[in-house]
Amino acid sequence: LVARMRGFGETIFAEMTRLAVETDSINLGQGFPDTDGPPSLLAGAARRIEQGVNQYPPGPGRPELRAAVAADRAARYGLEYDPDSEVYVTVGATAGITAAVLGLVEPGDEVVVFEPVYDSYPAAIAMAGGVRRAVTLRPGPPDEGGRFVFDPDELRAAVGPRTRAIIVNSPHNPTGTVLTAEEFGVIADVCQEHDVIAITDEVYEHLTFDGVAHVPLATLPGMRERTLAVSSAGKTFSVTGWKTGWVMGPAALVRAVQTVNQFLTFTANGALQLAVADALRDEMDWVRAQRAALQRKRDRLSEGLRAAGFTVLRPQGTYFVMADIRPLGLTEGVELARTLPRTARVAAVPAQVFYDHPDEGRHLVRFAFCKRDEVLDEAVARLGALS
Ligand code: PMP
Ligand code: GLN
Q1: Has the ipTM of the complex gone over 0.85?
Q2: Domains of the chain (ranges, CATH numbers)
């Protein structure tokens, strides 16, 4: 293995899912729903395959999906993208983000990320030979919800003449923070001051709670021309295995993604793209209902975790809730996550692995609540029996 990829090992999601399977645990580690997306979406894909949509689609993606993505983005956020030159389909958001970093970051360039950081960003930065600078999101007082926020001064200190890009994920995995227009304003100022590109990971854009709305960074003044937005169908339609994503941005940034991606995956599954294009138009009521259901699941699991003795930091979106283990008399989240499958037959993810400053996340464990209610209840019962 090349030196720059040493230390990445196996992803925490693969490790914890394997442990969950080995111990027959309820898997609240890796974030995937245990029910499938809208029936018309599933049938739409099956129909396309039967009808013979089985050869390479165009490199940039099926025009139907690029048009649907552009129409959706314009309708929801007032952001106009040319489907031909400013929208490009990738094998999930992961490939879009990695291709963006490989296409835009020179060796030695710095890339700012927020920690806890989604694990694919550090790997992509390392592949490009870039250097990452992590700005910490810290929880507020738990009795006020414990929302994770960054310190604007720390962000300003992390950006300098070598900074090429900043990767921003909102709604944020794993903290559930949905950044506000004001918080994005700080990021926008820094980007413009230092001529920095923003890559925004918006895969949870539809999964926000309590009436909180997702804000795309590209809607802020001066940001559309320097933002590459990334999203995907996986979370929106509960089909995480479909790996159908897209990037949206000014043509020059999209071309950088395309140049790299044509040699990574070349193209993505065409039948699934057509089904997703239909769903973006026809299944937004389903998405709204799913968002409401997820909010109830958040509350259900949070209550159970509290009853089991954890301090719960309330997420405003995503599939995940962060829990502080210190009230249980524990300090090491990594240790707890490694033993929990055997002691309670529940799997979770230790947040510490997402930090460059390990002490910030030592005592935090992430639980996924995107599961059927009876599964959440059983997990809570098992965790309750622990204490
Ligand atoms: N970004 C974040 C923050 C995620 O949680 C995930 C996991 N789904 C991804 C990207 C990857 O998305 P995709 O499956 O579309 O590659
Ligand atoms: N995004 C999912 C999570 O955070 C996992 C995706 C993966 O396994 N790489 O749990």
Answers
A1: yes
A2: 3-37+285-384 (3.90.1150.10), 39-283 (3.40.640.10)
